[in-house]
Amino acid sequence: MTEQQKVHPVSDDFAAKAWIDKEKYQALYQQSLDDPEGFWAEQAKRLDWIQAPTKIKHTSFDSHNVDIRWFEDGTLNASANCLDRHLATRGDQTAIIWEGDDPNESKHVSYRELHAQTCQLANALKELGIGKGDVVTLYMPMIPEAAVAMLACARIGAVHSVVFGGFSPDAVAQRVIGADSKLVITADESVRGGKQVPLKDNVDAALTRPGTEVCEKVLVVKRTGGEIEWKDGRDVWYHELVDKQSSDCQPEEMNAEDPLFILYTSGSTGAPKGLKHTTGGYLTYASLTHQYVFDYQDGEVYWCTADVGWVTGHSYIVYGPLANGATTLMFEGVPSYPSHGRMGEIVDKHNVAILYTAPTAIRALMAHGDNVMDSSKRDSLRVLGSVGEPINPEAWEWFYRVIGNSKCPIVDTWWQTETGGILISPLPGAMDLKPGSATLPFFGVMPALVDNEGNLLEGAAEGNLVILDSWPGQARSIWGNHERFIQTYFSTYQGMYFTGDGCRRDEDGYYWITGRVDDVLNVSGHRMGTAEIESSLVAHESVAEAAVVGFPHDIKGQGIYIYVTLADGYEPSDELKKELTQWVRKDIGPIASPDVIQWAPGLPKTRSGKIMRRILRKIAANECDGLGDTSTLADPSVVDELIENRASR
Ligand code: WTA
Known about the structure:
alpha/beta, eight-stranded mixed sheet, 30% helix, binds 5'-O-[(S)-ethoxy(hydroxy)phosphoryl]adenosine
């Protein structure tokens, strides 16, 4: 039997105690399709509304008029749902367990404390002149203040835009400008794997870029006390302003469709786009999926290892768990520091029941052998989760056997920044698991496969993954550019949301995501547009032309392979390779570090001048025998040259 055919059936014992078993899944899924209005009206009751919604679903995927609204006459406040409503019943329960980069540093923040801190920051934001509708950029370490900042924005109706702390000053600048952001909240430095990252220096550099003048203030958390520059009049210490504020702040009444946050992500073309997520539908969906997909039971410690800079951190470290009154663990560091046993040690230390992580982290540990987990027992674990990229069956089985001691179901959750929450995933008490498959759709989600012409494929098939109707967690638009939203997601296949992913459906109706079918790379679970990296490269004086493709990488899933044509007067050299590598890292961030650079005297192009990436991908993957038809190339000899001088890795 190959790995792919293995099935791990749901255990009766697990199903008996789970929120959702097979029968319940079938019944609720059917109901969610037959009567979406009734289903979601019922689910929305899990939130505290100020005005309960009476209008439930108003959505259109018609490319002439994409219009997505959920619960549109309801009003609520997201921070009140994550904090205030828990105070009476669980004020002293831990909301956030913070585990520092240094294993000797950790702390517990109760719901009451988190509420007070959020109110204090909310009042501080008001003092800084921030109000409803203003955009606040967060560029922060993984510390409780990051969650406090998100919730404080939500409390006063400001819109947060979190920028991953590993991105460059240019990326920060681009996002400050794109969202007209008046305030940046950051820290002096972040700490990861024993090393400091100069967040405040990066913000200083970002705010020298033209266009960033909109940003008037920088609020700085003192995390390390490291040396930083200070700009009087602009920079404000977090503790100096926040500590003196009242811990009372009335939450702003927000419409369900008022924006909660913007989050930038990469696409196949152009600069990263800021997806707009709104309040009522997003929170309903994040909270519901968190409870059911992880089978979260009251009192359990839940740990998602993502960074708050990504959507996974938004929905499944902050909003979903806190809306559910869960205890959510936030880890500042990296799984390999101080040793590769760290993840298991954290599980033991804090009694973690649910561990949600990424295939790339699992593969990195797996590379060190089974003994890498010997420093921990991990008996407290009950459910495991995977997200960000396809998980190969070998990594799945290792995760199951070594980390989960062969007793925890794995939920392989497929979703996207655009979807706001998990769309295809096992519910651990309801689905028999097949390693490598995200299994079946969540309630209210209608996945389908289409061929390149947009024809729906029935039964067992492979094609492009689309979603046929709206769900409440879906992004509503691209910030400031609804036309681009329509173009990107609703114009490829009429009347359908196009995910950009390829997918296979097997004879049991299980979905197997095969990866992106567009020019988006997924490197260690991080999304990057090839176009972004190319435009960074061609901005270097030595580069005449560049083409970027992904190639299979044992640990990262995909690596970055770059073909560079040099400008006249430049010669290939190892120094130049290093320089270009540094250039991209500085421009975009270390996550965009090239794995391979190949000098290319010419690139394979069609007669109309279009680069044939299909060929470049094959050469990068060392599949030079299956290049297919090259007869349409302007100069087929270019290909032979590239194969001959294929860069070794
Ligand atoms: C990929 C992350 C296979 C996919 C939540 C998607 C996955 C992109 C899975 C979104 C999974 C995410 N199996 N592929 N379980 N989860 N992906 O926006 O290609 O950072 O389109 O959201 O990651 O990445 P994003």
